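Changelog-adjacent note: as of this version, every example in the card shows the full chain rather than a window. The one below runs 224 residues end to end.
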Amino acid sequence: MKSANRELVDRLAAEYVLGTLRGRARRRFERWLLSPQVGALVHAWEDRLAGLEPPLKGVAPPPQVWTGIERRLELRKLARRPAARWLAVAASLVLFAVVGVFTLRQLATPPVTQQAYIQADAQTIYWRVELLGDNREISLHVHRVHDLPPGKSHELWVLPADGGAPVSLGVLPHTGEHHRELTAAQRAALAGAKTLAVTLEAEGGSPTGAPTMPVLLTAPLAAA
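Full-length structure tokens:
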């Protein structure tokens, strides 16, 4: 940077820091700040002038100033009118959210078509079995833990309507709620079936694919 140009930029930097450089001249100078040399001059003037400004105390405006501003801008009217509108919007959003969640649940969970209660008597229900949709899924709900000897499992069977061999629907859980997809063979066995049965098998289920022990409990399948 030439000496004359440096003196000019230095003077402009001083005015910029002091705040006396205005308008287009200030905007043009701000573009020059991308230059490291110009930036160095501005920082030098900031350091040179630091501490020379008179101390200023904060002054709170009197209450009537804010009252006048609110009156001229009609802020209180605007504050009252949107309140009812935002309340209606909030209520609509809540309604849409509830409807949306309900719809998603309906879409995500097929309806129960058939169900059976596996129980020892009218008061003691061990499992509730639900068939969902077009018998493509099964839902198992544990109501009460049935006594289970060590190394054993309770297995659920469907007794086909045509009197064929029982078809396993899997090992019964002993806690919580469980969903399973059914195979084509299981769906075929459930077609027209009226009864489910439970046997006590080796842990993990019958190793032969057929019941190896006598039936412990039976439950009728009924339309939901």
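Structural remarks: Confidence is low (pLDDT under 50) at residues 101-107.
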